[in-house]
Amino acid sequence: MDNFLHLLYFLPLSYLLFKLFKLIDQKRHQCCYILDYQCYKPGDDRKLSTEFSGEIIKRNKNLGLYEYKFLLRAIVSSGIGEQTYAPEMIFHGRETCPTFEDGITEMDEFLNDSIEKVLARCGVSPSDIDVLVVNVSMLTSIPSLAARVINRYKMRDDMKVYNLTGMGCSASLIAVNIVQNIFKCRKNAYALMVTSESLSPNWYTGNDRSMILANCLFRTGGCAVLMTNKVALKSRAMFKLKCLVRTHHGAYDDSFSCCNQREDEQGRVGFYLDKTLPKTATRAFVDNLKVMSPKILPVTELLRFSIVSFLRKMSESKGGLRPVINLKTGVDHFCLHTGGKAVIDGIGQSLNLSEYDLEPARMTLHRFGNTSASSLWYVLGYMEAKKRLKRGDKLFMISFGAGFKCNSCLWEVLRDLGDRNVWDDCIDSYPPENLTNPFMEKYGWINDEDPSTFKVPE
């Protein structure tokens, strides 16, 4: 009888222990790790110097004096240097008549370089990849770019494949979120995330100021990221994803239309940036932080901010500075999207960040420009090359994109990092003493020109 009673107790207990073990094991295999990443750096023959940029501008016969002055101000204040990269067709003088093949060639150069390098460094075969996510917003091909990757590397036919288009500069974290969700229901998997942008068919040759600006900011680039949820590979991993938050304000008309691809009055296609962009970006940023902050900050900071906000609200005098939440209480490094100097300055002011915090984004904008969704990984590469990333550090990534979207995530650094990646040839010279763009020195005479007598330079 006693044995029977013991058995009655033992069976439910065993079942509970089994379910508990299964739950813990499932949680262990739902982690998302970055094993390695590889940014793309074109050859030196694709660098946009001041001299060549001036030639490109002079080739555009649709520009007048006012457009020249606008471009001069935009380039000088952009925060971009002379070593950024442009598509090959620009150097062949074909920006007014790009072909579909130009866009495909631009993508193939990046895909063949970065994917091969990241797989080789990790010792992973293309046939080992279980999930492939490719995001390139402004180039659609049939078969898809994801299919080109599969064909190029002869990957398995049972892969989970996602090809993202039209998601803009925030697409990298959307791709990470897709991988994160797949890892929740699939054990011991490898995922390859590929992010870039095709500028070849999207170089604007008209004179609409809101569309010319994109030419001043966007540059060629891309990144391949290898991720896994294999617990056995944790010791080799670089980062572990802690949390990710996506905010989409497409329901607001001003947010939806503030940056989009459109035709100008002459039918020339370009990327339009509206003057309401800063306002809509701020709104999305604030809403994203409202969700993210409780996930990454200690209770003491959340309590402090709540008390200060409440006291200010109840106070009769509502002047003075608004309370700012201190993200540094839960974050060690800030990986910001290089949307432009104004974007970096705005985030820095909103979060009360120091120049040390903003340096990686500023230097990435100066060296590589805005490489769209891949820009976050160049910023990350700068931090690593400067040996800032130490085991246990928390890294906050934030990006913005058309739609309008604001996406952010928090990574934990799993080991001390110091690889130079694409910064190998120049990291020792950064940050430079002077970030002034030489355009004003060379083309400043445009400001003194008389509109009635101005002629386009030969």
UniProtKB/TrEMBL annotation:
This is 3-ketoacyl-CoA synthase. GO terms for cellular component: membrane. GO terms for molecular function: fatty acid elongase activity. It comes from the Eukaryota. It is an enzyme of class 2 (transferase). Gene3D superfamilies: 3.40.47.10. InterPro entries: 3-ktacl-CoA_syn, ACP_syn_III_C, FAE1_typ3_polyketide_synth, Thiolase-like. Residues 331-412 form the Beta-ketoacyl-[acyl-carrier-protein] synthase III C-terminal domain. GO terms for biological process: fatty acid biosynthetic process. Its EC number is 2.3.1.-. It catalyses: a very-long-chain acyl-CoA + malonyl-CoA + H(+) = a very-long-chain 3-oxoacyl-CoA + CO2 + CoA. Residues 26-312 form the FAE domain. The chain crosses the membrane at residues 6-24, 161-183.
